[in-house]
Design brief:
Blueprint (H helix, E strand, L loop, with lengths): L1 H20 L2 E12 L26 E4 L1 H6 L7 E4 L5 E7 L7 E5 L4 H7 L2 E9 L1
Parallel strand pairs: 1-5, 2-4
Antiparallel strand pairs: 1-6, 2-5, 3-4, 3-6
C-alpha cells in the first residue's frame, strides 16, 4: 500500500509540473491611468459596479483593461496582472471603452488625489496565459 501511495504522489507532482509548464507569461508596455468610484469616471447611476458585475470597493487591487488586451492578448475577467513598480497582483474586474488601445486603468477607490498624482504613465505589465 505504501508503494502505491508514493507512486500516487509522484503522478500528482508530475501532473502539476506539466500544468505549470503549459502556461506562458506575457509581458508588454501599456499606458496606465487611474480611476475612482465616481459617477463622472464610471457608469452613470452606478459608480461601483464593474463591467462583469463585480462590486468595486476601496482597497481592492483591481484594474480595467482596454478591449484589445482582452481580445488579442489572452487577458480575461479575473486574470491576475503584475504592474512593474507596484506591489502585488491586480485582478482584471473591468473593461474600458472600445476607443482605448493598449491601456489599463488602475482602480484607486475614492482617493481622487492619489489617482491624479498617478496621472498617466507607461508601465510594463505581465500575466499568465494558458
Amino acid at each position: 500500500m505504501k508503494y502505491r501511495t508514493k507512486n500516487h504522489h509522484l503522478i500528482v507532482f508530475s501532473c502539476l509540473l506539466f500544468l505549470v509548464s503549459c502556461t506562458e507569461t506575457k509581458t508588454m508596455k501599456v499606458t496606465a491611468t487611474a480611476y475612482n468610484s465616481l459617477e463622472s469616471q464610471t457608469k452613470k447611476g452606478d459608480a461601483v459596479t464593474a463591467a462583469w458585475g463585480d462590486q468595486l470597493q476601496p482597497g481592492m487591487k483591481a484594474i480595467a483593461v482596454s478591449r484589445d488586451l482582452l481580445e488579442l492578448e489572452g487577458i480575461e475577467h479575473g486574470s491576475k496582472v503584475s504592474i512593474a513598480g507596484l506591489p502585488g497582483k491586480f485582478t482584471v474586474l473591468d473593461k474600458m471603452n472600445k476607443r482605448w488601445k493598449q491601456k489599463i486603468d488602475i482602480y484607486m477607490g475614492e482617493n481622487v488625489g492619489q489617482a491624479k498624482e498617478w496621472g498617466k504613465k507607461k508601465v510594463e505589465i505581465s500575466w499568465q496565459v494558458d
